[in-house]
């Protein structure tokens, strides 16, 4: 038997092999995303220890919660078939963001508590409207397109976080606020879900994660370039989100 290029191409084209690669990429994406989900834990330990939210903002967690809910909805069979690993990663992400927001509300002053509580309620109202419109007014194909474009828009909006960190690194010539392991996790997660979407031929998964992959590469290159100029140990970034 010829085990050259034709045999290799046949193995890649085999549905079972492709399914295995797709499943592996999705599982890897879930694992790397989990690293990003737990990255704010030191910040919230500090909030609980000091009994105050200090100058921290709840906005990243509010935005991330809405993003996770939209992407979770996209991955459910009501909207899309065969992308269950998108649902698992975003349901876990939503649970983390909701927990972080609840802790923030518990330790914020009265004015900030009222503001964040209102924003949290608004997130669930918006998500409820998305669910209602997609189920009550749209057929399945249109529903997938509608929710898919919303998920892409929300993910691209979330790229403001790595872009702001990239800008900060270039401006300060320091990777102080861009820890290597978080940048690496973001890159690996984006690559994993880019491959997952590519293997599924799902535009709404591979396009935003392709952008995330490019941003991850830029972060890693900047880290390599500015590492020696850093002023000290890496700290948690000012804003951390997931794709």
UniProtKB/TrEMBL annotation:
Family membership noted in the UniProt record: Belongs to the SWEET sugar transporter family.
Protein name according to UniProt: Bidirectional sugar transporter SWEET
Quaternary data: Forms homooligomers and/or heterooligomers.
Annotated transmembrane regions: 23-44, 56-76, 82-107, 119-137, 149-170, 177-199, 205-226
Principal subcellular localisation of the protein: membrane
Gene Ontology CC terms: plasma membrane
Keyword Repeat: yes
Lineage: Eukaryota, Viridiplantae, Streptophyta, Embryophyta, Tracheophyta
Function recorded in the entry: Mediates both low-affinity uptake and efflux of sugar across the membrane.
Keywords carried by this UniProt record: Cell membrane, Membrane, Repeat, Sugar transport, Transmembrane, Transmembrane helix, Transport
Highest taxon in the source lineage: Eukaryota
Membrane topology: Multi-pass membrane protein
């Amino acid at each position: 038997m010829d085990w050259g290029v034709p045999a290799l191409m046949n193995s890649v084209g085999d549905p079972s092999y492709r399914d295995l690669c797709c499943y592996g990429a999705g599982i890897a994406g879930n694992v790397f995303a989990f690293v990003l989900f737990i990255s704010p834990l030191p910040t919230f330990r500090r909030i609980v220890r000091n009994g105050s939210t200090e100058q921290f903002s709840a906005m990243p967690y509010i935005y991330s919660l809405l993003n996770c809910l939209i992407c979770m909805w996209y991955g459910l069979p009501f909207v899309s078939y065969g992308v269950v690993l998108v649902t698992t990663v975003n349901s876990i992400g939503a649970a983390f963001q909701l927990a972080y927001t609840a802790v923030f509300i518990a330790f914020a002053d009265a004015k900030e508590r009222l503001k964040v509580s209102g924003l949290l309620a608004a997130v669930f109202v918006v998500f409820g409207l998305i669910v209602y419109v997609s189920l009550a007014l749209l057929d399945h194909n249109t529903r997938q397109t509608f929710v898919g474009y919303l998920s892409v828009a929300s993910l691209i909006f979330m790229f403001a976080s790595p872009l702001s960190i990239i800008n900060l690194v270039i401006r300060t010539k320091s990777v102080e606020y861009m820890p290597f392991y978080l940048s690496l996790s973001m890159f690996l997660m984006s690559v994993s879900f880019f491959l997952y979407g590519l293997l599924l031929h799902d535009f709404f998964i591979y396009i935003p994660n392709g952008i995330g992959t490019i941003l991850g590469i830029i972060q890693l290159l900047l880290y390599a370039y500015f590492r020696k100029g850093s002023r000290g140990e890496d700290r948690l970034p000012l804003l951390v989100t997931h794709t």
